[in-house]
Model the fold of this input.
Amino acid sequence: MYHERILEIIMYILKELKRQKDLNDIDYKELIRFGYSDSEINAAIAWIYSKIQEDEKVFFKNISSPKSIRVLNPAEQRLFTPESLGYLISLKELGLISEQDFEFIIDKISTSAVFRVELSELKPIISAFVLNIDDPNDKRNRLIINNNDTIN
Done:
């Protein structure tokens, strides 16, 4: 649940950045009003800053034309509830996952024994994927787990 909440904060920050805001211009107190803790907010900010410092992309740009939309075939559509599919698409639209990541996630779920993925089941999978939770050598993972700083 902790990592899912961090991913939600990252999504909020990226939405604000796409509105042409600077990281310093974002109202982080709004996140506190939404019920997120200082450590969760700091972990999300640390993750974003670590991506920037390592010259990694914070969010992927859609390479496909704006008129091009990936349509799921009927078998793929049955794998997801409308909420879970909407969440996955919003991650792609925000640029948190690339087109290739989107395809990889769909392929992984289609080859699993899951009949239909609920949003509550998809969020931990996506947060582990995006935040590299399974990789103990990833610096961003350590920042998220060990972050106890507070926002001033």
Notes: The first helix runs from residue 2 to 18. Confidence is low (pLDDT under 50) at residues 138-152. The radius of gyration is 16 Å. Residues 2-146 form one domain.
